[in-house]
Design goal:
CATH superfamily: P-loop containing nucleotide triphosphate hydrolases
Bound molecules: thymidine-5'-diphosphate
CATH architecture: 3-Layer(aba) Sandwich
Distance between the termini: 14 Å
Strand content: 5-15%
Number of helices: 8
CATH class: Alpha Beta
Structural class: alpha/beta
Shape: globular
Strand order of the largest sheet: 2-3-1-4-5
Oligomer: single chain
Number of strands: 5
């Protein structure tokens, strides 16, 4: 089973990924992954992508995210799913569609097709989309130290958020979560949803 978490920077994805991991880990074999990163090549690519002083072309940025993901799918995600593990991924294709497709203006469908090629068409069983108004994130969550992508400005984030909304509306397996609620409420909703999904799969 493959679960991904999506949303803008600062929305609390990483905390929720960790809490879901701990919840599932009691009864299942779970692997949690962070994008970009995790593999050796992925970590090297992550460094390039997030360095503040790097002036990357938009296309280069896209290819680097996809290169990292392609490694991750072949070397880690696919083998783990084959072994019956639950794989949780902190960001996946929908991040690239929202950030590069909509945010950088490359185009959602073009990026989607490239993502499908890079990931051998694997799609998550559940996408958790953590959502909060942009103003709320700017006021409460955007951290003091910014990486290259976080330096892209508010208008960029507006495009990314509108892009997420537009794109995810078309997908059947998305669970949108109000991330302004307290951490415990968000995590218990997520855990309950996954438990029910697993129970339904068993009944099939
Ligand atoms: P992330 O590691 O989630 O950020 P942080 O650890 O700082 O919370 O993601 C790093 C940045 O990369 C983030 O701004 C989102 C961006 N990103 C893309 O632009 N495209 C992608 O495909 C992915 C996976 C991330």
């Amino acid at each position: 089973m493959f679960i991904t978490f999506e949303g803008l920077d600062g929305v609390g994805k990483t905390t929720q990924v960790e809490l879901l991991h701990n919840h599932l880990n009691q009864r299942h074999d779970v692997l949690t992954i962070k994008e970009p990163g995790t593999t050796e090549i992925g970590n090297t690519v992550r460094e390039i992508l997030l360095q503040k002083d790097k002036d990357l072309e938009t296309e280069t940025e896209l290819f680097l995210f996809l290169a990292s993901r392609s490694e991750l799918v072949s070397k880690v995600i696919k083998p783990s799913l084959m072994q019956g593990k639950i794989v949780i991924c902190d960001r996946f294709n929908e991040s690239t569609i929202a950030y590069q497709g909509y945010g950088r203006g490359i185009g959602a469908y073009r990026v989607y097709n490239m993502c499908m090629f890079a990931t051998q068409n694997i799609t998550p069983n559940i996408i958790f989309y953590l959502h909060a108004p942009l103003e709320y994130l700017i006021e409460n969550r955007f951290s003091g130290k910014h990486d290259r992508i976080e330096n892209s400005g508010v208008s960029f984030y507006k495009k990314v958020q509108d892009g997420y909304e537009d794109w995810l509306e078309t997908l059947p397996n998305v669970r949108k979560i109000d991330a302004t609620q307290n951490i415990e409420k968000v995590s218990s909703d997520i855990a309950a949803y996954v438990d029910e999904f697993i129970a339904n799969e068993k009944r099939k």
